[in-house]
Description:
Helix content: 40-55%
Structural class: alpha/beta
Order of helices and strands: HEEHHEEEHHHH
Distance between the termini: 32 Å
Radius of gyration: 16 Å
Number of domains: 1
Strand order of the largest sheet: 3-2-1-5-4
Number of helices: 7
Shape: globular
Number of strands: 5
Amino acid sequence: MRRDQLEHAIRTACQIIDAREVIVIGSQAILGSVDEMRLPAEATMSLEVDILPIAADEDDTSRLADLIEGVAGEWSPFEELHGYSIDGVSLVTAVLPPGWRDRLVKVENDNTTAPGGDPRFTGWCLEPHDLCVAKLVALREKDTRFVEALLGAEIVDAHLIAERLRLLGATHEAAAQRALGWLTSREA
């Protein structure tokens, strides 16, 4: 996926749910922070953009996520036309470290503006280390390949990822320990 496709997905998701802002929490959030030419291929392979609607509560978030999924999700005419899909997700989709909202990276430019120049939509992308925490908590093969690629390209720092994993708390302690084990084993 390319940065312009991320920007298009942000604009489209905002238009679908009639909102000015959304949060990008999947792997393509990396395109909000790092130039695609600097990214390893493993970091841009996904052809789906995970969009978290910003809403008053989890029920409304889930409703809006379903709306995005229905219009632009997998197997939709949108995917057929553009070659990628937009997946609506909820607050429980990813485990994120405390303070993640304060570190979001703003994506807003001409490509996130509706035709005619108004309104301007904003995508808030996960900061790369927070994104890696979410990926390592899931600890699927595709997630570890993604994080390994970013570590190998020196885009993220393993020590900062570990520090944020340790902040997850008791609810996610087992997942954090597995993730920390993975980080430790790759350094050996």
